[in-house]
Amino acid sequence: MAAEAASPLPSNTFPTKITSIKTLAESPGLTSIPSTHTFTPDLHGQVTSVPEASIPVIDYSLLISGTPGQRSEIVHELGRACQDWGFFMVINHGVPQKLLSSILDGCKGFFDLAEEEKQEFKGNHVLDPIRSGTSFNVSVEKAFYWRDFLKVFVHPVFYSPTKPAGLSEISLEYSQRVREIARGLLTGISESLGLEGSYIDKALNLERGKQIFIANLYPTCPQPELAMGMPPHSDHGLLTLLIQNGIGGLQIQHKGKWVNVGTHPNSFLVNTGDHLEILSNGRYKSVLHRAMVNNKGTRISIAMAHGPSLDSVVSPAPELLVSSKGDEPAAYIGMKYKDYLELQQSNKLDGKSCLDRVRISAV
User: Fold this and answer.
1) SS in 3 state form for the chain?
2) pLDDT digits (tens, 9 = 90+) for 69-99
3) Rounded to two decimals, what is the model's pTM?
């Protein structure tokens, strides 16, 4: 006897408690989204397309093993990318494509777990080492994002969910490889500011630096024009390295307009964070970015955030406040990274609202 077809979900009837967007998106017959997940269309703003070639590309192999001339040129390009875009793409980084595919598959396996299994890892506090959930911070949001997430602290102490099988081993290898790249990039960025290559590493104690693994699931959405994967925001920390599963949705703000960023196999998309802006006294800007959703396929992205040690107080580098042209006033007050992290993660995600709290207003 054939199984009965599942009854379609009426467009105005939704689960009373939505624990994951994946469950909602897979509801039979879903043709609209709940009002709790609806954003006004004008939130999407003006979007422009830029030629792919205009997004800065950094050849990592030249940074770590190029000739002195090649390396000098890459350091210069890194500085320009951080100053003009706050965003760049890294190629020839040495991480095997197989590892990139394996970690994306491992995260898909996590999101495919039964809801009660994922609830084992939901966490309660923003500094819990493993947290999974939906949206960003449902306790303070009026409208929820079309996103499920898994956030895991992977350095200086490595954590991982125990499910699915194999994820822990893959994420350990992936985290170590990406952390090595991030520290190499930060060495080049430090030099681009006219500082010693090891300056950022030592000043912010990156040996104990916080590395956070963030997997994002953006399911197919029946009304993508009304939903938002993640709102415009900047990241805490220094650098975030992102990979995705071939389905685009990332937009960055450049010169006041939103720019679609395509998908590029075997590359990392890198954006600068608030603490690089603070340390550089505003020479380099953290970039506003957001995640859009679509009705064509499920997008998975993995962001690896790299920050100072939790007890580091981040303030503008004193060396950048003194020059032959006269002293430059500090544009930001110092704040312990742990306090900043708690502040951002405990509130609504809203542009650069956290950065504004440590910005010193010009008199």
Assistant:
1) CCCCCCCCCCCCCCCCCCCCHHHHHCCCCCCCCCHHHCCCHHHHCCEECCCHHHCCEEEHHHHHHCCHHHHHHHHHHHHHHHHHCCEEEEECCCCCHHHHHHHHHHHHHHHCCCHHHHHCCCCCCCCCCEEEEECCCCCCCCCCCCCEEEEEEEECCCCCCCCCCCHHHHHHHHHHHHHHHHHHHHHHHHHHCCCCCCHHHHHCCHHHCCEEEEEEEECCCCCHHHCCCEEEECCCCCEEEEEECCCCCEEEEECCEEEECCCCCCCEEEEECHHHHHHCCCCCCCCCEEECCCCCCCEEEEEEEECCCCCCEECCCHHHCCCCCCCCCCCECCEEHHHHHHHHHCCCCCECHHHHHHECCCC
2) 999 999 999 999 999 999 999 999 999 999 9
3) 0.90
